Amino acid sequence: MTSDSGPHELSFQPKLFANASQKKTVPIAELYKQLKKLSKELNGLEQETVDTQSLDAVTRQLLAPSLLRHKEPGVVAYVSCCIADILRLYAPEAPYSEDEIKAVFNVFIDQLQLLGDTDNQFFALREYLLTSLATVRTPALVAMQADAEDTISRFFTVLFGVVSTGQAHNMQMQILDVLQQLVEEPKTVPQDVIDVILLQFTRRRQQDNAAAHQLASDLATNTADILQKYIYQYFNDVIVSAGQAGTLDDL
User: If DSSP codes are grouped into helix, strand and coil, which group holds residue 93?
Assistant: First the structure.
């Protein structure tokens, strides 16, 4: 880093790949060592004082398929946290294209899907990722894309699937925060998202996962001004369809 009076630079430039093609990483023990050191330094940098030009090289390296699709789950967990910090440091802009953002967030969702395994040795990294998404509000980057419906829907399916009564209250609030961003930021809320939210109010779902039901209730309350038109339309469509089918009396 530079002196306190000037911009802070990323001083550590990791060696992640065995060659310039970036198709093969360094041996796993060394790769973990490099990623842990990189993650620690990125975590210590502040958005207000960082020299983002010093991040340019590692910003691109972290997108390499040999990292994002690495067979070792811990590698992907560390890479995800590093990218989350990159997004934090560049915010509110992003150093990636829309396609790259979409690819990154699908990797993020894969990591969040593993939050239910609290005994996993990489649980803390996935928890860190969730915290970053909630506090930095980076889901807005994907939510504002014109063709983000599938990615947004995956967020809802996965997070409603992993929330549970056994989780810390703070984690449940962070999940709520991420989902609320994904309702508030897009121009329209995907129908699949409405379906997932309403599913949580069924009697069976309330019995199977009370935390998911509470999450849906809190989300509906916090975003009532946005969701009400979609929910009204949903039930209107149900009533019209039932009437056309002659089953209105069964509703």
Answer: coil
